[in-house]
Design brief:
The structure is a single chain. The chain has 286 residues and is an alpha+beta fold. It has eight helices and 13 strands. InterPro entries: Cupin_8 (IPR041667), JmjC_dom (IPR003347), RmlC-like_jellyroll (IPR014710).
């Protein structure tokens, strides 16, 4: 492609990026923040139909979880005798691209310990701030009603106004317990999500669906961390490849960021992601 055609294409892409943001994200550099739960009709009309994210403040202040789950002793007592799954990585970056000796660019998954007594699992999460391994408790697949069913009564089974707007209750309700070192690589979800923070803060970087090409989705061989004599090491799984985003929103070094700028120019040349912080009592719809 000659330079003139490249410039025309870049101009058209820039116009598309701007138009989509005006339609789905708005013209401000932040996500809409509502003071309280919307009516089902408002939520459906202004956000679900428009595929537009928003933060609903003061949405879960009535949940007992907001006061109870900040107490380690309460969690230990409520979960006494229960066993959970713990995901371990050396740096908190599960589902991130890693450099395996046999393949310089592969997708890493956490080492999973199943059947861990909850008290031990909670201790691993608490120790993650200073430990060589970062622990994250999560199992997906509706784990609040299975592994963490003893805590399910501390939160609503569904979000009434969202259930009415979407026309059905949630397919799965998951509980994630982690610390400040846990990060998630860029990815895309195929579901309507409601993300409620109970304790701490969760920071998001959001892009509209039309920006998927800017993330350079490629097929990568899958790897997973194994526990080898107390140390987490990558093991390459050659029979499985998965599509994943190449761009790292949190480059660990200036050298790596420079490499990414050279390899993935569309991400760095285009408009930056919308930043969003979700606090206790808030729900993020995306």
């Amino acid at each position: 492609m000659d330079s003139q055609r490249q410039e025309i294409m870049r101009a058209k892409l820039a116009a598309l990026w701007e138009e989509v943001r005006e339609l789905s994200l708005g013209t401000t550099p932040s996500v809409d923040r509502l003071d309280g739960p919307p009516t089902p009709l408002t939520f459906l009309r202004d956000y679900v139909s428009a595929n537009k994210p928003c933060v609903i403040s003061n949405a879960t202040l009535h949940w007992p979880a907001l006061s109870l789950w900040t107490q380690d002793e309460y969690l230990r007592r409520a979960m006494e005798g229960r066993h959970v799954s713990v995901h371990l990585t050396p740096d908190g970056r599960a589902d991130a691209l890693s450099r395996h000796p046999q393949d310089p660019s592969s997708l890493s998954s956490a080492h999973v310990r199943r059947g861990v007594p909850f008290e031990e699992a909670l201790g691993l999460v608490i120790d993650s701030s200073s430990s060589s391994a970062v622990a994250y408790c999560q199992e997906q697949n509706d784990c609040l009603s299975s592994e963490y069913s003893a805590l399910a009564g501390d939160a609503d089974a569904d979000i009434g106004w969202a259930t009415e707007a979407l026309g059905r209750p949630p397919e799965a309700v998951n509980l994630w317990i982690g610390g400040g070192r846990s990060e998630t690589w860029f990815h895309k979800d195929h579901y309507e999500n409601l993300y409620a923070v109970v304790s701490g803060k969760k920071h998001f970087l959001l892009l509209p669906p039309t920006d998927a090409h800017r993330l350079y989705i490629r097929w990568y061989p899958a790897t997973s961390y194994n526990d080898v004599n107390g140390r987490l090491k990558l093991a390459l799984v050659l029979e499985r490849h998965v599509p994943w985003c190449s761009v790292d929103p949190y480059s660990p070094s200036e050298e790596e960021e420079e490499r990414q700028r050279s390899s993935y120019p569309l991400y760095f040349e285009g408009p930056q992601p919308i930043q969003c912080t979700v606090n206790p009592g808030d729900i993020l719809y995306l």
